[in-house]
Amino acid sequence: MIQFKALLSKELKEAFRDKRAMMMAMTMAVMAPVMIFAMSKVMIKEAVETPAIYFKISGAEYAPKLINALKDENILLFKDVPSNKRAIWDERNLTLTIPETFNENMLDGKPIELYLSADYSDKANLSPVRRIKNTIMHYARAIGYKRLLVRGIDVRLLQVVKIIEQDTSLPNSNAMIISMMLGLYVLMAAFMSGLPVAIDTSAGERERNVLEMLLCQPVSTVKIVSAKLCCASLIACIGVLLTLSLTTFSVGFIDLTKIGASFSLDAFTISALILLLLPICFFASALQLFVAFQSKNFKEAQSMVSMIIMLPAMVPVVMMFVDDKPKWLDWLPISGQSLIMEDLFKGLPVSWALIGFTSLVTISMTIILVLLMAKKLRSETVVLALS
Amino acid sequence: MIEVNNLCKSFGGAKKSLFKKKESPVIALDGLSFTANDGEITGILGPNGAGKTTCLRTLYGLLKADGGSATIDGINVVDNPLAARARLGIFPDKFGLYERLTAYEQIDYFASIHGLTGNAKHQAIEAVINDLDMTELAHRKTLGFSQGQRMKVTLAQALVHQPKNFVLDEPTRGLDVMSTRVLRNYLARFKEKGHCILFSSHVMQEVAALCDRVIIVANGKLAAQGTPKELCELAGEVQLEEAFVKIIGSDEGVAA
Question: What is the pTM of this model?
């Protein structure tokens, strides 16, 4: 116990005196509110406003009422485009062609063919095209209903089956993207914050020849590894807690009601999050230490460990594409946590048993890593970085 | 007491990989045996690459020998490494310092690892700092220490728990004359108290002046051993340096 205390206090002293590492560790946390704030601003703007669309048209004179209907939806003619936006809309090249026979066919009740041409693969065109289509459909349907009405036909005859949709997602779900981002971000923070310390304490110490000296002392390698792990994961925990608290603080400044979303980090959510993330901090640091000890020098350790950071970024993204998630994904570290966090942010009920089980799996994997490292440190190849 | 019995160690060549051709292994130790007794200072001499450091590293358990055994006070270093190391004070060939800690904190760290606590620890640290004449350095961070100052810190952390056996790998390189003298007196004092001291060196005068027994290692084998005087007589020279060169140079005749 004396030994462990000495080891840990030395690790902490070194870590907290390393100003650069600490700064790097805390950047993630400080960046969080800034990012959340900026992203939500942009998203709210996109969701709420219907910015002006300018489209090119030929045959406008044949259908003035349609043009007016479009104008009501802020969809305007290309000739009215302000000069500073001219180039953009010219390039997007949304073109609507109204045939000469528009009026004639309208009177005869024949189908009218309008041509809408645009580059559908361009993401920037998606929303304008959708809006133009919706407006024209609405316009056409209104006329169609009137035609039936004047013939004495109930328009409800057209509705053979009516689907009544019941969205079971809670109002919170609209803030999905923000919460997805936050989930990803805190996972990243757990991996990033402890990173500089983890590398420095393993590969760094070996390169500075102090690890060798320590390993000659009468102290078990399990103690050495656990002291290093405790130190690195403590820093990671601080980073995660700081991220969470700053985010809670900054979300208060964003008016999400505009997009009909509510997003709150209440006491329950926060405590569940902390319970989820603390084991991940330990797991992340253990993984980083393991890889750093495995690599031959400091540089290799840095690049290898950076690859580990891809894990929390990739796993949740990959899981978005898996529709039928197998059950074991709930239990594995990272994937389990990110799934539970998703439910948590959606406001769905989360079972404490599942949280507990996932944490248990994560912690036991951490312990396995520690024991593996302890074993590695007893072998001369790892200690002296022989190939 | 440190005993080394028929120690063998080779590097490389053991593994055959898909991409590399099998390299011929480097044989660092080839059946080295010697004993360093309590109450004596034993010096290890040998040309570069003779296997001195490999032998010492095997003693503190950093390397595992391919064959043979090493014991410290009768404890086998492979079977019970922690107990064996607890009886050792180590000054390794490669050493670094925790540059964000002060010298005092660093010595404190190693003292705690050896299980010292409270007042006893404090006194032990103060004593070693005074003995090595480094009071001025004690509360400075070790970043930027000169070679000699670094050596002193490392020595202090090796000696703070007053181990029964010392293993010092070239402890005087980089030390100034005063510090070398301090160290010599220090070692002599521990010898009087009955400690076992094993150190390697390249400085012949030092070995001649300090050592009760000298072990000469060449090509991973014991080339000769005895008091400095005996070695001189064996080689038929007056100076230890000449004797050393002769013993190393002609392994026929003399060493047999």
Answer: 0.80
